[in-house]
């Protein structure tokens, strides 16, 4: 990764923990942060713009970039489509003098940490497993079977929380965002003492 003033922050955690909302609030508060746009092989939907919602790639182009090691992380297939984080997308944000925020599944977060030693990883958790279940049910975007699958995955992911640099419990949104913001500010204050890989 290139040098510069920015840092790479990787946010992860189980589905239903509210990490997307926490990250959105954080980005609104901290203009020096920018979210990386993921790449995907899924088709462009009406109203979407290439490079804004996603970088839309064909299967062949995705394969080519994998072969050229241009992804920091990628997943083979999610619902028949592929997703990944392009190195050049992160580099673009850092070169502009901003810090980059990624929202990834736990495996992707670990892959990025392995590739970028000074990336800061944050696990965003629900306060309890029962609260996580309630949020998934209330969200009503998945079937009962899908919710059960997400809960089983969440149970495994929660056992990995301690392997990340920080854990933020999203028990109350304002409090969680304030805690996360404090972590980000603290890390941005230590940039000068760190070496990039």
Radius of gyration: 17 Å
Please give the share of residues in helix: 40-55%
State the order of secondary-structure elements, H for helix, E for strand: EHEEEHEEHEHEHHEH
**What is the strand tally?**
9
- Return residue spans where pLDDT drops below 50 for at least 5 consecutive residues: 192-197
Strand share of the residues? 15-25%
Strand order in space, largest sheet: 2-7-1-8-9
Number of helices: 7
Approximate shape: globular
Average residue-wise pLDDT? 90
* Major sheet size, sense and barrel closure: 5 strands, parallel
End-to-end Cα distance = 6 Å
Classification by helices and strands: alpha/beta
Characteristic key phrases:
7 helices; 21% strand; 9 strands; single chain; disordered C terminus; globular; alpha/beta; 5-stranded parallel sheet; 4-stranded mixed sheet; 197 residues
Write a concise synopsis of the structure shown.
Helix content is 41%, strand content 21%. It has seven helices and nine strands.
């Amino acid at each position: 990764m290139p040098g510069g003033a920015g840092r790479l922050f990787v946010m992860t955690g189980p589905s239903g923990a509210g990490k997307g909302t926490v990250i959105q609030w954080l980005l609104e508060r901290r203009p020096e942060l920018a979210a990386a746009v993921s790449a995907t092989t899924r088709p462009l939907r009406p109203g979407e713009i290439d490079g804004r919602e996603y970088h839309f790639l064909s299967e062949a182009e995705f394969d080519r970039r994998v072969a050229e090691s241009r992804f920091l992380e990628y997943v083979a297939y999610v619902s028949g489509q592929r997703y990944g984080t392009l190195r050049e997308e992160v580099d673009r944000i850092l070169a502009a003098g901003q810090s980059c925020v990624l929202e990834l599944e736990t495996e992707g977060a670990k892959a990025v940490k392995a590739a970028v030693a000074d990336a800061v990883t944050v696990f965003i958790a629900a306060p309890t497993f029962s609260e996580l279940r309630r949020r998934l049910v209330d969200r009503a975007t998945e079937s009962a079977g899908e919710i059960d699958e997400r809960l089983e995955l969440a149970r495994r992911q929660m056992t990995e929380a301690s392997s990340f640099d920080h854990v933020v419990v999203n028990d109350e949104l304002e409090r969680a965002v304030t805690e996360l913001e404090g972590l980000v500010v603290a890390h941005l204050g230590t940039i000068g003492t760190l070496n990039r890989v």
